[in-house]
From TrEMBL:
Protein name, as recorded: RDD domain-containing protein
Transmembrane segment boundaries: 49-67, 79-96
Organism of derivation: Corynebacterium marinum DSM 44953
Domain spans labelled RDD: 42-150
Region (Disordered): 1-30
Keywords assigned by UniProt, alphabetized: Cell membrane, Membrane, Transmembrane, Transmembrane helix
Biological classification of the source: Bacteria, Bacillati, Actinomycetota, Actinomycetes, Mycobacteriales
GO CC aspect terms: plasma membrane
Keyword Isomerase: no
Length: 158
């Protein structure tokens, strides 16, 4: 059924009422063309949070060693953030996954071009937005954060 012209007086639209393009799919990633489960399926929020934790702990350990020898970049928290950002940009660009993603069996994929590399600008923008926390915490009906929507990427299993 086609969506008739609506105005603000009609009130909110019920999801699925008139082929709502913003209605959630039957599973996360369905509207992106991703499978429901298995390799290529959208990774869960918990799994992605685990990967960020692994990356952060790795960078925190490296920063602890680094600041024992010099305070050139600042204290441990600042160096941890700088290392984490560098890790996210470089490994996202070169390998389409961070060490945390690799440990938990995930990777970063472009959804706009099947099989194309993530690329430097997407990896950099995605990492910077993730460091701001709020874009990563605000998710759509598929469970993708705003940082992934902004860069046309998704974290998938496999």
């Amino acid at each position: 059924m086609a969506n008739p012209k609506r105005s603000w007086l009609d009130g909110p639209q019920i999801p699925g009422e008139h082929d709502d393009p913003y209605a959630p799919g039957r599973w996360p990633g369905e509207k992106l063309g991703l499978p429901e489960s298995g390799p290529g399926a959208l990774a869960s929020v918990g799994r992605r949070a685990g990967a960020v934790t692994i990356d952060w702990l790795l960078c925190w350990l490296l920063a602890g060693v680094f600041v024992r020898f010099t305070d050139f970049l600042g204290s441990t928290p600042t160096v941890t953030l700088l290392f984490w950002m560098a890790l996210g940009i470089v490994t996202g660009w070169l390998f389409a996954r961070t060490p945390g993603h690799m440990v938990l069996g995930m990777g970063i994929a472009r959804i706009d071009a099947g099989g194309a590399k993530v690329g430097l600008w997407r990896a950099a923008l995605r990492t910077v937005l993730t460091s701001l926390i709020l874009p990563a915490a605000m998710v759509d009906s598929d469970g993708r954060g705003l940082h992934d929507r902004a860069t046309g990427t998704a974290v998938i299993r496999g």
